[in-house]
Every structure is written in C-alpha cells, then in structure tokens.
Please model this.
Amino acid sequence: MQTRITSVGLLVKAGPDDKFKYPHHIDRASLDALPAKPGIYIFRDEQDRPLYVGKSVSIRTRVLSHLRTPEEARMLRQSRYVEYRRTAGEIGALLLEARLIKEMQPLHNKKLRRTREMCSLHLLPEAGAVPEIVYAREHDFACTTDLYGLFATRKAALEKLREIVDAERLCPAMAGLETLTRGRACFARQIARCLGACVGEESAQDHHRRLHAALDAMRVVAWPYAGPMGIVEECDGWMQTHVIDRWFYLGSIDHAENATQLKRPTRRAFDIDTYKILVKPIMRRELRIEPVAFSIKK
Model:
C-alpha cells in the first residue's frame, strides 16, 4: 500500500486524492532545486515576504509534503516560490530555523514567532528559603544558578509551583503561596494535604529537601563552559561549526579559523529556543563540541 509523509514527518496511508501535482502558481524551478539534504526552507509570496520557515534533514521531502497537505492550503495559495539554505546537520537546521523565525516573523509560524519574556522560579539551597519568581530582563539566566522552570508568565510559574506543592503534599505557606495566620496551620494541613511543616510537625530542613527534589526535574542548566563553544556537524564532507555562547546562537561557520567572519549580534542573551534545542544533547554528551577562539566583528 502506498504511503505519504505529512509536513510534520508522519507516515500515513496515501488516499485516492494523493496523486501529486506541482501547484502551478509556485515556481517549478525553485522546487526542482530543493536538495534531499539538511537545512531550512522558506515559502515566500509574490512580494518576497516570508510566509513560513521550516527545517528538515531532507529539505526536498519536507517541502513536497507541505504541497500535499490540505490543511496548509491558505499558506500554499499565497506562496510563489521556495528558498532554501543548507546546513551540515539537524542541529544547524534547528538553530537556523529558530533564529530566522524570530528575525523574519513569518505569517504562518505562530509557535516561535514572538520572542518571549521569560521568568523562572529561584530557590536558594538554604533551608527556609522560599521560591521567588525572577525575570530574564533582570537576571542572566545563562549563568544564574538555582533556577527552576522557564515560564512565559508569572501566572504560569505560580500554577506550576502550586501543582508541585499539591502533588508532593508540601506546605503552601512554606512555599510562599499562602500567608499563615499566627498559631494556625495552613489550609492544606487542615485537610490533610500538607505534612505539617507550617506547625513544626515536619522539620524545615526536610520540607526544603522535598521541595528541592520536586523542583529538580525543572532545573535550568547554567551555561557549562567558560566561553563560546562550537558544535561541529558534517554532511558529505562539508563541515560546519555552530558557535554558541551562554545559550545564544552566534552563527555558523565552515571552518573554525574563519570564526572572525561572525558579526556582532544586536542582542546577545539567554535564548530559550537555543536552550531547548541544545540542553539535553549537550548534557548527554551527544554532540561534538570544540572550543572556539574568536573576536566578534562589529
């Protein structure tokens, strides 16, 4: 039975309407030029405005899957040609896609289009410390320790903290979510949902240890290197080095000795998308990482 690949990479059964025809209004030459290699692609309209930026380990396969997807008919009707940019691997494609979406603000990229203002829960290791909500505009999340979770709003951070407190039978008052009345237990203790740290039935040290353990899965990893590092990828003999500093993607170079070609970015701070792309493979040592010594041009 024939199958087809959707634009999100799913393999599905081909239906009777899946016989492929190139859309007549999209430049055929731009489609024929698409390589079956890693990189990003950009659907553009007749004014050259970017409509959608995507990435794939096979640019050609993914773009053709868009053309077969009825749910994307509106974007396809506006498209006139497809541009592409090669990368030497999947990591480079992910990093470049995230950067271009923020820079270009394509109409149909809604998930990553806006740069989010982040906040996080900050909890010092000392017993008795209360989680505090801190903001990226005031703290460099790339080097601040004892941060837990990345949130788009203060409300989201408080909701997550309350969820953890409820699940672990922690004390809302000791977690900063409730104000105690002198001589009275917190409301959760009154309904047997708190182990009693608020009234001395659980030690402050034990409560703090349990709170730390519950938050630990959300720990924000500080940049683990002294300076910028290069993530090396290779495809068909072509090598790229993706330069990262403090969870910020500075750009990609073909050879480490040409790193001075990188231009000074207008913004250089913790980037949530770069962090999410890289933190797990870096901590699992899945990437080839090398020091990069360079000076950034203005």
